[in-house]
Amino acid sequence: MKILVTGVAGFIGSHLAHVLLNRGDAVVGVDNLNDYYDVRLKEARLSRLQGHPNFHFHKMDLADRSGCADLFNQIRPERVVNLAAQAGVRYSLTNPHAYVDANLVAFVNILEGCRHNGVEHLVYASSSSVYGANTTMPFSVHHNVDHPLSLYAATKKANELMAHTYSHLYSLPTTGLRFFTVYGPWGRPDMALFLFTKAITEGKTIDVFNEGRMRRDFTYVDDIVEGVVRVTDRVASGNSEWSGAVPDPGTSRAPYKIYNIGNNNPVELMHLITTLERVLGVRAEMRMLPMQPGDVPATYADVDDLIRDVGFKPATPIETGVERFVAWYRKFYGEQK
Q1: Predicted confidence band at 336 (pLDDT cuts at 50, 70, 90)?
Q2: For this structure, is 152 an active site residue?
Q3: Catalytically annotated residue among 36, 91, 152, 220
Q4: How does pLDDT run across 131-147, given as a tens digit for each residue?
């Protein structure tokens, strides 16, 4: 298939492109290579893809309406995986307009591109952050998610609503994926594991929020990508049993689906730190801090729908994932010196 992957120089996007290329798909990658974090890391991810005969890259901002329309008209993808977004809960507190441009304006441009060019299936990244103030665990796609705690979360919830509208109005099959704390090699420098590893190896103090009492459903990147690929191959269809009298948030009469992709095994932040200390062979100096605005104390994914529909459940243990991340970090940054 010809698959458009947006955010292809990003953490998940670059891993996904490798898997799709290796199985024989043609991948058109798009990224604006913005400087939210070190552009050199994005360029290094991209360099591993360039040169493959079935990979073509376009540097562009998807918030550019005419540019996005031209791209779709030119490449005519069969399927689209939208991973381009402005990420980060805390960054959204101080840079709200970046989220409107990247997560709302760009997303409607993608929806329009899919609508007018016969795209068979749009798969897009949502986030576990949409669960916001919910406290019933594990988080289920069948729960109401109307109480986001950050603008980032609100834009991801908005993406789900926008996608449903296009599924309903234009019969465009769409599937949203709520990712749970993704980590692994080539990961984002603004994420906890990367920040902790960098600080500990440099002999600096790490900031531990909520006094270390955070619990996260850390999900290894290979598991995330396996889930994305399986869902992309399974075109969303409508639920004939859906009822407006008792509306199920996770499905619809329209060809619209939502899935959680998480490890289904929350890990205490302090366990992550002790695991990292063991792998690095260094004790961490910690600064205990209160909960930050926009954060939630715990995440925990119910993945029953993912197992039922595509036969997959993430299962990489945190110990294995941390070891693989540290091995990559030491190799990559050792080579950069």
Answers
A1: low
A2: yes
A3: 152
A4: 999 999 999 999 999 99
